[in-house]
Amino acid sequence: MRRRLVILISVLVVVVFAVACGSAPPKPTEKPKTSQAPMQTTPDLVGPEAARTYQDQANNAAKNGDWARAEELYSKVIKADPRVAEAYYNRGVARIRLGNNESGAKDMKMALTLRPNLEAAFVNLGAAYLATGRLSAALQQFNAVVSKQPNNLEAKNNLGAVYMRMGQYDRAETIFKEIIRQDYKFVPAHVNMGLVYFYKDLPQLAERVFKNAEKLDPKNSDLTANYGYMLLKIGELSLAKVQFEKSLRINPNNASALTNIGALEIMLRQFDKAQAHLDRATQIDPSNPNTWSNLGVARRARGDNDGAEAAYKKAIEIDPNLAEAYLNYGIFLEEVKQDRKGAIAQYSRYWQAAKNQSGTNPRVPDWIDALK
Question: Above 90 in pLDDT, residue 128?
Protein backbone atom coordinates (compact mmCIF):
# COMPACT_ATOMS: atom_id res chain seq x y z
CA MET A 1 0.00 0.00 0.00
CA ARG A 2 1.37 3.39 -0.98
CA ARG A 3 1.83 5.85 1.85
CA ARG A 4 0.00 9.14 1.74
CA LEU A 5 2.27 12.13 1.13
CA VAL A 6 1.73 15.45 2.88
CA ILE A 7 1.20 18.60 0.79
CA LEU A 8 2.10 21.85 2.52
CA ILE A 9 0.59 25.27 1.90
CA SER A 10 1.98 28.60 3.01
CA VAL A 11 0.36 31.65 4.54
CA LEU A 12 1.76 35.09 3.79
CA VAL A 13 1.49 37.28 6.87
CA VAL A 14 1.69 40.77 5.39
CA VAL A 15 4.75 42.46 6.82
CA VAL A 16 5.14 45.98 5.51
CA PHE A 17 8.40 47.60 4.48
CA ALA A 18 9.28 50.18 1.87
CA VAL A 19 10.50 48.81 -1.44
CA ALA A 20 12.94 51.55 -2.25
CA CYS A 21 14.33 54.57 -0.47
CA GLY A 22 14.80 56.91 -3.37
CA SER A 23 17.51 59.11 -1.95
CA ALA A 24 20.82 59.05 -3.75
CA PRO A 25 24.03 60.89 -2.96
CA PRO A 26 23.78 64.66 -3.36
CA LYS A 27 25.09 65.97 -6.64
CA PRO A 28 28.70 67.01 -6.22
CA THR A 29 29.69 70.62 -6.72
CA GLU A 30 32.72 69.40 -8.64
CA LYS A 31 32.96 66.81 -11.33
CA PRO A 32 33.95 63.51 -9.70
CA LYS A 33 37.42 62.30 -10.54
CA THR A 34 36.39 59.01 -12.11
CA SER A 35 36.47 57.42 -15.53
CA GLN A 36 34.18 59.09 -18.03
CA ALA A 37 33.41 55.87 -19.92
CA PRO A 38 29.71 55.31 -20.65
CA MET A 39 27.93 54.09 -17.50
CA GLN A 40 26.02 51.30 -19.19
CA THR A 41 29.17 49.60 -20.48
CA THR A 42 31.41 50.04 -17.43
CA PRO A 43 30.27 47.84 -14.52
CA ASP A 44 32.71 49.11 -11.91
CA LEU A 45 32.37 52.89 -11.98
CA VAL A 46 32.73 54.71 -8.67
CA GLY A 47 31.66 58.03 -7.21
CA PRO A 48 28.35 59.79 -6.57
CA GLU A 49 27.33 60.05 -10.23
CA ALA A 50 27.77 56.32 -10.75
CA ALA A 51 25.94 55.61 -7.51
CA ARG A 52 22.99 57.71 -8.67
CA THR A 53 22.72 55.85 -11.96
CA TYR A 54 22.95 52.42 -10.35
CA GLN A 55 20.41 53.48 -7.71
CA ASP A 56 17.87 54.47 -10.37
CA GLN A 57 18.37 51.15 -12.16
CA ALA A 58 18.10 49.24 -8.88
CA ASN A 59 14.91 51.03 -7.85
CA ASN A 60 13.34 50.14 -11.20
CA ALA A 61 14.30 46.49 -10.74
CA ALA A 62 12.78 46.51 -7.25
CA LYS A 63 9.54 48.06 -8.52
CA ASN A 64 9.33 45.27 -11.10
CA GLY A 65 9.85 42.61 -8.44
CA ASP A 66 13.24 41.55 -9.83
CA TRP A 67 14.87 41.29 -6.42
CA ALA A 68 17.98 39.43 -7.59
CA ARG A 69 18.77 42.18 -10.09
CA ALA A 70 17.93 44.83 -7.49
CA GLU A 71 20.35 43.25 -5.00
CA GLU A 72 23.09 43.19 -7.63
CA LEU A 73 22.56 46.84 -8.54
CA TYR A 74 22.32 48.09 -4.96
CA SER A 75 25.65 46.33 -4.36
CA LYS A 76 27.05 48.39 -7.23
CA VAL A 77 25.72 51.55 -5.57
CA ILE A 78 27.57 50.61 -2.40
CA LYS A 79 30.75 49.85 -4.31
CA ALA A 80 30.50 53.16 -6.17
CA ASP A 81 29.86 55.17 -3.00
CA PRO A 82 29.94 53.34 0.37
CA ARG A 83 28.41 56.35 2.12
CA VAL A 84 24.90 55.83 0.72
CA ALA A 85 22.81 54.62 3.65
CA GLU A 86 19.77 54.10 1.43
CA ALA A 87 21.68 51.63 -0.72
CA TYR A 88 22.32 49.39 2.29
CA TYR A 89 18.70 49.81 3.29
CA ASN A 90 17.37 48.92 -0.16
CA ARG A 91 19.76 46.01 -0.59
CA GLY A 92 18.55 44.77 2.77
CA VAL A 93 14.97 44.87 1.52
CA ALA A 94 15.96 42.94 -1.61
CA ARG A 95 17.81 40.35 0.44
CA ILE A 96 14.86 39.86 2.77
CA ARG A 97 12.62 39.37 -0.27
CA LEU A 98 15.08 36.77 -1.57
CA GLY A 99 15.04 34.94 1.75
CA ASN A 100 18.54 36.09 2.75
CA ASN A 101 17.24 37.48 6.01
CA GLU A 102 20.44 37.50 8.05
CA SER A 103 22.23 39.44 5.32
CA GLY A 104 19.24 41.74 5.12
CA ALA A 105 19.44 42.45 8.84
CA LYS A 106 23.14 43.29 8.54
CA ASP A 107 22.38 45.75 5.76
CA MET A 108 19.70 47.44 7.88
CA LYS A 109 22.16 47.81 10.74
CA MET A 110 24.72 49.33 8.40
CA ALA A 111 22.12 51.77 7.09
CA LEU A 112 21.41 52.85 10.66
CA THR A 113 25.12 53.26 11.34
CA LEU A 114 25.34 55.69 8.43
CA ARG A 115 22.00 57.36 9.14
CA PRO A 116 20.82 56.79 12.72
CA ASN A 117 17.51 58.53 12.01
CA LEU A 118 16.55 56.41 9.00
CA GLU A 119 13.18 55.40 10.44
CA ALA A 120 12.32 52.85 7.78
CA ALA A 121 15.46 50.86 8.61
CA PHE A 122 14.23 50.36 12.18
CA VAL A 123 11.03 48.85 10.79
CA ASN A 124 12.83 46.68 8.29
CA LEU A 125 15.32 45.40 10.83
CA GLY A 126 12.33 44.13 12.78
CA ALA A 127 10.95 42.59 9.57
CA ALA A 128 14.24 40.74 9.09
CA TYR A 129 14.06 39.42 12.64
CA LEU A 130 10.48 38.29 12.03
CA ALA A 131 11.43 36.54 8.79
CA THR A 132 14.15 34.56 10.57
CA GLY A 133 11.81 33.52 13.37
CA ARG A 134 13.47 35.74 15.96
CA LEU A 135 10.10 36.76 17.32
CA SER A 136 11.31 38.22 20.62
CA ALA A 137 13.82 40.44 18.83
CA ALA A 138 11.17 41.50 16.30
CA LEU A 139 8.71 42.24 19.09
CA GLN A 140 11.26 44.39 20.89
CA GLN A 141 12.16 46.24 17.69
CA PHE A 142 8.58 47.05 16.67
CA ASN A 143 7.53 48.00 20.21
CA ALA A 144 10.43 50.44 20.34
CA VAL A 145 9.37 52.06 17.07
CA VAL A 146 5.66 52.22 17.96
CA SER A 147 6.34 53.69 21.41
CA LYS A 148 8.19 56.59 19.76
CA GLN A 149 5.99 56.82 16.67
CA PRO A 150 2.41 55.77 17.52
CA ASN A 151 1.27 56.82 14.05
CA ASN A 152 3.79 54.61 12.25
CA LEU A 153 1.27 52.21 10.75
CA GLU A 154 3.91 50.03 9.09
CA ALA A 155 5.59 49.32 12.42
CA LYS A 156 2.26 48.85 14.16
CA ASN A 157 1.08 46.40 11.47
CA ASN A 158 4.28 44.43 11.83
CA LEU A 159 3.88 44.37 15.61
CA GLY A 160 0.47 42.79 15.08
CA ALA A 161 2.05 40.32 12.66
CA VAL A 162 4.50 39.23 15.36
CA TYR A 163 1.68 38.60 17.83
CA MET A 164 -0.15 36.64 15.12
CA ARG A 165 2.94 34.49 14.57
CA MET A 166 3.07 33.93 18.33
CA GLY A 167 -0.54 32.73 18.31
CA GLN A 168 -1.70 35.72 20.37
CA TYR A 169 -4.63 36.41 18.08
CA ASP A 170 -6.61 38.67 20.41
CA ARG A 171 -3.67 41.04 20.82
CA ALA A 172 -3.06 41.00 17.08
CA GLU A 173 -6.73 41.72 16.40
CA THR A 174 -6.68 44.70 18.76
CA ILE A 175 -3.68 46.18 16.95
CA PHE A 176 -5.12 45.68 13.47
CA LYS A 177 -8.43 47.26 14.52
CA GLU A 178 -6.56 50.25 15.90
CA ILE A 179 -4.69 50.67 12.60
CA ILE A 180 -7.94 50.51 10.63
CA ARG A 181 -9.44 53.19 12.88
CA GLN A 182 -6.40 55.36 12.20
CA ASP A 183 -6.43 54.76 8.44
CA TYR A 184 -9.27 52.73 7.00
CA LYS A 185 -7.48 52.42 3.65
CA PHE A 186 -4.37 50.73 5.11
CA VAL A 187 -4.97 47.42 3.34
CA PRO A 188 -2.24 45.27 5.01
CA ALA A 189 -4.09 45.58 8.33
CA HIS A 190 -7.30 44.33 6.69
CA VAL A 191 -5.46 41.37 5.15
CA ASN A 192 -3.87 40.39 8.45
CA MET A 193 -7.19 40.89 10.24
CA GLY A 194 -8.74 38.39 7.84
CA LEU A 195 -6.03 35.88 8.73
CA VAL A 196 -6.63 36.47 12.44
CA TYR A 197 -10.32 35.69 12.04
CA PHE A 198 -9.50 32.58 10.04
CA TYR A 199 -7.12 31.37 12.74
CA LYS A 200 -9.82 32.07 15.33
CA ASP A 201 -12.08 29.69 13.36
CA LEU A 202 -14.27 32.47 12.00
CA PRO A 203 -13.98 31.82 8.23
CA GLN A 204 -17.15 33.70 7.28
CA LEU A 205 -15.95 36.83 9.05
CA ALA A 206 -12.51 36.38 7.50
CA GLU A 207 -14.04 36.14 4.03
CA ARG A 208 -16.01 39.33 4.66
CA VAL A 209 -12.82 41.14 5.63
CA PHE A 210 -10.95 39.87 2.55
CA LYS A 211 -13.76 40.93 0.21
CA ASN A 212 -13.97 44.35 1.82
CA ALA A 213 -10.21 44.78 1.49
CA GLU A 214 -10.45 43.80 -2.16
CA LYS A 215 -12.77 46.77 -2.73
CA LEU A 216 -10.11 49.05 -1.26
CA ASP A 217 -7.30 47.59 -3.37
CA PRO A 218 -8.44 45.21 -6.12
CA LYS A 219 -4.87 44.78 -7.38
CA ASN A 220 -3.28 43.64 -4.12
CA SER A 221 -1.51 40.35 -4.88
CA ASP A 222 -0.88 39.47 -1.22
CA LEU A 223 -4.55 39.95 -0.41
CA THR A 224 -5.76 37.59 -3.13
CA ALA A 225 -3.04 35.06 -2.28
CA ASN A 226 -4.15 34.95 1.35
CA TYR A 227 -7.81 34.76 0.40
CA GLY A 228 -6.89 31.79 -1.77
CA TYR A 229 -4.96 30.26 1.13
CA MET A 230 -8.04 30.40 3.33
CA LEU A 231 -10.25 28.89 0.62
CA LEU A 232 -7.74 26.10 0.05
CA LYS A 233 -7.60 25.34 3.77
CA ILE A 234 -11.38 24.93 3.94
CA GLY A 235 -11.43 22.73 0.84
CA GLU A 236 -12.80 25.18 -1.74
CA LEU A 237 -10.27 24.14 -4.38
CA SER A 238 -11.88 25.76 -7.43
CA LEU A 239 -12.39 29.09 -5.68
CA ALA A 240 -8.87 28.96 -4.27
CA LYS A 241 -7.45 28.40 -7.74
CA VAL A 242 -9.26 31.50 -9.01
CA GLN A 243 -7.68 33.61 -6.26
CA PHE A 244 -4.16 32.25 -6.81
CA GLU A 245 -4.42 32.85 -10.55
CA LYS A 246 -5.64 36.37 -9.91
CA SER A 247 -2.78 36.98 -7.49
CA LEU A 248 -0.27 35.85 -10.10
CA ARG A 249 -1.82 38.00 -12.81
CA ILE A 250 -1.25 40.98 -10.53
CA ASN A 251 2.24 39.88 -9.48
CA PRO A 252 3.78 36.90 -11.31
CA ASN A 253 6.54 36.85 -8.67
CA ASN A 254 4.30 36.27 -5.65
CA ALA A 255 6.12 33.28 -4.17
CA SER A 256 3.34 32.42 -1.72
CA ALA A 257 0.76 32.24 -4.50
CA LEU A 258 3.13 30.14 -6.62
CA THR A 259 3.72 27.72 -3.74
CA ASN A 260 0.04 27.34 -2.99
CA ILE A 261 -1.17 26.97 -6.56
CA GLY A 262 1.56 24.34 -6.94
CA ALA A 263 0.21 22.54 -3.87
CA LEU A 264 -3.30 22.74 -5.28
CA GLU A 265 -2.15 21.32 -8.61
CA ILE A 266 -0.50 18.39 -6.82
CA MET A 267 -3.86 17.70 -5.14
CA LEU A 268 -5.43 17.75 -8.61
CA ARG A 269 -2.61 15.52 -9.93
CA GLN A 270 -1.52 18.20 -12.40
CA PHE A 271 2.13 17.51 -11.73
CA ASP A 272 3.64 19.28 -14.75
CA LYS A 273 1.92 22.54 -13.84
CA ALA A 274 2.75 22.04 -10.18
CA GLN A 275 6.46 21.60 -10.83
CA ALA A 276 6.58 24.66 -13.07
CA HIS A 277 4.99 26.83 -10.39
CA LEU A 278 7.07 25.37 -7.57
CA ASP A 279 10.33 25.70 -9.51
CA ARG A 280 9.49 29.34 -10.06
CA ALA A 281 8.65 29.82 -6.38
CA THR A 282 12.03 28.44 -5.27
CA GLN A 283 13.80 30.84 -7.62
CA ILE A 284 11.98 33.81 -6.10
CA ASP A 285 12.06 32.68 -2.47
CA PRO A 286 14.53 29.84 -1.91
CA SER A 287 14.00 30.01 1.88
CA ASN A 288 10.50 28.45 2.09
CA PRO A 289 10.81 24.78 3.15
CA ASN A 290 7.17 24.09 2.28
CA THR A 291 7.88 24.90 -1.35
CA TRP A 292 10.84 22.51 -1.47
CA SER A 293 8.91 19.67 0.16
CA ASN A 294 6.07 20.09 -2.33
CA LEU A 295 8.58 20.28 -5.18
CA GLY A 296 9.92 16.92 -4.04
CA VAL A 297 6.42 15.46 -4.34
CA ALA A 298 5.93 16.92 -7.83
CA ARG A 299 9.33 15.78 -9.06
CA ARG A 300 8.78 12.27 -7.76
CA ALA A 301 5.42 12.08 -9.51
CA ARG A 302 7.11 13.07 -12.77
CA GLY A 303 9.83 10.44 -12.38
CA ASP A 304 12.65 12.80 -11.39
CA ASN A 305 13.81 10.83 -8.37
CA ASP A 306 17.18 12.53 -7.99
CA GLY A 307 15.49 15.93 -8.13
CA ALA A 308 12.87 14.81 -5.63
CA GLU A 309 15.48 13.64 -3.14
CA ALA A 310 17.41 16.89 -3.50
CA ALA A 311 14.23 18.89 -2.84
CA TYR A 312 13.36 16.91 0.30
CA LYS A 313 16.89 17.37 1.62
CA LYS A 314 16.71 21.10 0.91
CA ALA A 315 13.44 21.42 2.84
CA ILE A 316 14.99 19.68 5.84
CA GLU A 317 18.15 21.77 5.59
CA ILE A 318 16.11 24.98 5.73
CA ASP A 319 13.85 23.83 8.56
CA PRO A 320 15.11 20.85 10.57
CA ASN A 321 11.81 20.91 12.50
CA LEU A 322 9.55 20.50 9.46
CA ALA A 323 8.02 17.16 10.34
CA GLU A 324 6.15 16.74 7.06
CA ALA A 325 9.38 16.91 5.05
CA TYR A 326 10.79 13.98 7.04
CA LEU A 327 7.59 12.03 6.40
CA ASN A 328 7.63 12.67 2.65
CA TYR A 329 11.33 11.86 2.43
CA GLY A 330 10.80 8.66 4.39
CA ILE A 331 8.01 7.56 2.06
CA PHE A 332 10.27 8.32 -0.90
CA LEU A 333 13.10 6.23 0.55
CA GLU A 334 10.79 3.32 1.33
CA GLU A 335 8.80 3.22 -1.90
CA VAL A 336 11.28 4.49 -4.50
CA LYS A 337 14.72 3.66 -3.15
CA GLN A 338 13.69 0.56 -1.16
CA ASP A 339 15.99 1.93 1.53
CA ARG A 340 14.44 0.45 4.67
CA LYS A 341 17.10 1.78 7.02
CA GLY A 342 16.90 5.27 5.57
CA ALA A 343 13.10 5.24 5.69
CA ILE A 344 13.13 4.19 9.35
CA ALA A 345 15.48 7.07 10.15
CA GLN A 346 13.24 9.64 8.44
CA TYR A 347 10.04 8.24 9.94
CA SER A 348 11.65 8.34 13.37
CA ARG A 349 12.63 11.98 12.88
CA TYR A 350 9.10 12.74 11.74
CA TRP A 351 7.63 11.14 14.83
CA GLN A 352 10.05 12.97 17.12
CA ALA A 353 9.13 16.31 15.54
CA ALA A 354 5.38 15.73 15.17
CA LYS A 355 4.23 13.45 17.97
CA ASN A 356 2.90 16.33 20.08
CA GLN A 357 1.37 18.25 17.16
CA SER A 358 -2.18 18.16 15.87
CA GLY A 359 -2.69 16.26 12.64
CA THR A 360 0.15 13.82 13.27
CA ASN A 361 -0.12 10.52 11.37
CA PRO A 362 -0.63 7.99 14.20
CA ARG A 363 0.34 5.01 12.02
CA VAL A 364 3.97 6.00 11.52
CA PRO A 365 5.23 3.97 14.53
CA ASP A 366 3.58 0.91 12.93
CA TRP A 367 5.39 1.67 9.67
CA ILE A 368 8.68 1.76 11.56
CA ASP A 369 7.98 -1.58 13.25
CA ALA A 370 7.02 -3.18 9.93
CA LEU A 371 10.31 -2.10 8.34
CA LYS A 372 12.54 -3.41 11.12
Answer: no
Strands (E), 218-269: none
Which pLDDT belongs to residue 32?
A: 30
The yes-or-no verdict on residue 20 having pLDDT over 90 is no
Quickly state the pLDDT bin for 29 (edges 50, 70, 90). Answer: very low
CB atoms inside a 10 Å sphere around CB 180: 18
Rounded Cα distance between 261 and 275, Å, is 10
pLDDT at 51 (0 to 100): 77
This prediction has a pTM of 0.76
User: For 222-239, what is the mean pLDDT?
Assistant: 91
* Distant-in-sequence, close-in-space partners of 90: CB < 8 Å, separation ≥ 6: 20, 21, 55, 58, 59, 62, 70, 74
Three-point CA angle 50, 54, 58, nearest 5°: 170
Q: What's the CATH number for 1-18+45-166?
A: 1.25.40.10
User: Which helix or strand (DSSP H or E) is residue 52 part of?
Assistant: helix 48-63
CA-based R_g, the chain, Å: 23
Which one-letter DSSP state was computed for residue 121?
H
The Cα 100–Cα 94 span in angstroms is 9
First-last CA distance in the chain: 17
**Pick from 292, 256, 291: nearest CA to 12:** 256
What share of the chain in percent tops pLDDT 90?
54
Element (H, E) at 119: helix 119-131
Tell me if 31 sits within 8 A of 177, measured CB to CB.
Answer: no
Query: What's the per-residue H, E or C state across 165-229?
Result: HCCCHHHHHHHHHHHHHHCCCCHHHHHHHHHHHHHCCCHHHHHHHHHHHHHHCCCCHHHHHHHHH
Find all residues with CB under 8 Å of 17, minimum gap 6, and list them.
Answer: 93, 96, 120, 123, 124, 127, 154
- Sequence spans of domains, the chain: 1-18+45-166
So what's the pLDDT on residue 347? 94
Q: Where are the alpha helices (DSSP H) in 22-134?
A: 48-63, 67-80, 85-97, 101-114, 119-131
Compute the Cα dihedral for 288, 281, 358, 362 and give only its sign: negative
Report the distance separating Cα 24 and Cα 130, nearest Å. Answer: 28
Supply the mean pLDDT for the chain.
85
Residue 330 has pLDDT above 80, yes or no: yes
